[in-house]
Design goal:
Layout (H helix, E strand, L loop, with lengths): L1 E10 L2 E7 L21 H13 L3 H4 L6 E4 L2 E4 L13 E9 L5 E9 L13 E11 L2 E5 L2 H12 L3 H7 L3
Antiparallel strand pairs: 1-2, 1-5, 3-4, 5-6, 6-7, 7-8
């Protein structure tokens, strides 16, 4: 698998960021280090990659914390990835362009928003989709919208499920 471009909007400490893995200095490096001060967004970059690929993140999946918070009239568990949307915002998303181990070009996108895109709106369900950029349907990239189908395609594209990816890639 080769990462190409990561776009982050309103996830945790990152308001807006684009990381182009095909531009220098990243393009010339097989391995790179993410550094920065506490709260700068280092873990958020890894969260964003995992959200795009698996609609989950090890930061929340591995937490020992339990409970729920109120979001309007709805209860939201501590482990719900929608909790990563920045406070006082109406929408959040991550998009990741990558080439799978199978040689296919993809764009994975995870997003969440509040009703009507307003920061005071009720938290809506997440949207997760995978575009197969090499495969066209009516002139548009073939898009997968069902979670089970996305997981199956990710397994084919990456060769790893969420837990395997976290153990082997996010050391």
């Amino acid at each position: 698998m080769k990462l190409q471009k990561l776009t982050i909007h309103n996830i945790a400490s990152i308001e807006d960021a684009v990381i182009d893995f095909e531009a220098q200095p990243l393009a010339g490096s097989e391995v790179f280090l993410i550094t920065g001060k506490t709260g700068a967004g280092k873990s958020t970059i890894l969260d964003a990659i995992c959200l795009a690929l698996f609609a989950n993140t090890p930061r929340l999946d591995g937490t020992q914390m339990q409970g729920e918070t109120k979001d309007g009239k709805d209860d939201v568990t501590i482990k719900d990835p929608r909790q990563l949307m920045r406070r006082n915002t109406g929408e959040a998303y991550v998009a990741l362009n990558f080439t799978g181990s199978n040689g296919v070009l993809y764009e994975a996108k995870w997003s969440v928003k509040r009703a009507h895109g307003k920061e005071t709106g009720n938290l809506q369900s997440k949207t997760w989709q995978l575009k197969v950029l090499d495969k066209k349907e009516n002139g548009q990239p073939f898009t997968i919208n069902k979670d089970a189908e996305i997981r199956a395609e990710m397994k084919a594209a990456i060769g790893l499920d969420f837990n395997q990816f976290c153990r082997t890639t996010l050391l």
